[in-house]
Amino acid sequence: MNYAKMRLITIMAIVLVLSPPAFAEDVHISGFLQGLYGGGLDDDNPTPSELTAAETRLQLKLESYGDMAEFFGRLDFVYDGYDEPEYDWELREGYIKFRLGNNFDFKVGRQVLTWGTGDLIFINDLFAKDYVSFFIGRDDQYLKAPQDALRGAYYSPIGTFSLVYTPRFAPNRVPTGMRLSYFNPMAGDIVGGQEFYFEGRLPQAEIENGEIAGRFQRYFGTADFALYGYRGFYKNPEGFDPTAMQAYYPRLNVYGASIRMPVFEGIAWLEGGYYDSREDTDGDNPNIPNSSLTGLVGFERQIVTNLTVNMQYQGEIMMNYDEFVESIGGQTEVDEIYHLLTSRVTKLMRMETVVLSLFGFYSPSQEDFYGCFSLDYKYTDNLTLTVGGNIFAGEDQFTDFGTFQKNDNLYLKITYGY
After folding, report:
1. Environment class of residue 295 by beta-carbon count within 10 Å: exposed (0-12), middle (13-18) or buried (19+)?
2. In this predicted structure, what is the pLDDT of residue 66?
3. DSSP designation for 10
4. Which CATH number characterizes residue 219's domain?
5. Which residues lie closer than 8 Å to 395 by C-beta, 6 or more apart?
6. What value does the mean pLDDT of the chain take?
7. How far apart are CA 98 and CA 113, in angstroms?
8. Which of 70, 185, 213, 351 would you call most buried, defined as having the most Cβ atoms within 10 angstroms of its Cβ?
9. Which of the four pLDDT bands, split at 50, 70 and 90, describes residue 3?
10. Residue 390 and residue 404: Cα distance in Å, rounded?
């Protein structure tokens, strides 16, 4: 790492640690030191290394509270030995939160955002995700990628109105072929390595290309009800520009609703959304996703002491399906209705010092599967040992999980919190 970069990191760390006390009364510093080591199980995976992770991570977290404002910072330093060893860093969060009067609050800066009801299924949560981190065993917090945003909330007697503006579009972080392989339709096979490095073309950095997400939320008794709206782009590079021969992020509007409530001694949730593909309103351009209508239903309950199980079903209907089929010559392996089933099982053992977690996705329409598992052992209050893995399977290579079927991996994680 060059001197300039080291100097920048040092300056930001000093600012992160020293600046908040100027306006705060209460300051808390914490974090963790972690080693993550993982390896692939498929010898035919075309990625540059058989490793999936070989990293040491130091996270510094600072929380500061005062009468006028709150400050939160989370800074990661990483030594990554995956392929070509390198040092890196990321400011995951760094924001100020403050109130105006009794009804408004604002959060300004780099932040991790989330809303919606689904368990690892995101319909109205159009904030950036990091699927590479999730697929190689990093902590669950890394599934949510940070973005620079302004969030405002208004609290009224009828409910809470929230608005999030992200000036620069923040896409999902998806496998690029370097650490995890993927199916390339132009090559007709699962590919990896620098030759097939995949990165979608981002929208121009213009005001009109910012993202706007809104939510209205209120309780009706014990039921948490919400309405959502989003204006931006598909979070994955699902469009294709045949002139430039490059994938890109088509424009998108989303309108949705959700409800979450206690039912039958458990928790049930319903969520739905309409995905309005703004660049293909007629559904006859095969290079751009069609508009779609999607819904989710889920239920979670503690079956016996320390054993919790949930199940979810998601269905998605492609709009203008006949026009899509006609645009590609009348034959397709893409179904009009997509089905997805998921289940999570969590078991606490040995006075809750051991946590076993299993999560599975299965699509009967695409005939593909993704499963992940982890076993956490809290050796001391500060030291946690984790073993886990990720398994992908698919009848076809072009489906959502079939595209990653050569990325099966196991990992070991050691975390010391302070």
Report:
1. middle
2. 85
3. H
4. 2.40.160.10
5. 366, 367, 368, 402
6. 94
7. 17
8. 213
9. very low
10. 10
Rounded CA-CA distance 73/62 in Å is 5
Residues 140-183 pLDDT 10s: 999 999 999 999 999 999 999 999 999 999 999 999 999 999 99
* pTM of the predicted protein model: 0.93
Residue 17 makes CB contacts below 8 A (sequence gap 6+) with: 29, 60, 62
Separation of alpha carbons 290 and 17, rounded Å: 48
Enclosing domain of residue 122: 3-417
Contacting residues for 25 by C-beta, under 8 A, at least 6 apart: 65, 66, 67
The model's confidence at residue 391, banded by pLDDT at 50, 70 and 90, is: very high
For residues 138 and 36, the answer to whether their CB atoms sit within 8 Å is yes
Q: Which amino acid is at 197?
A: Y
Contacts of 267 (CB under 8 A, 6+ apart): 260, 261, 299, 300, 301
Total of domains in the chain:
1
Confirm if 137 and 385 have CB atoms less than 8 A apart: no
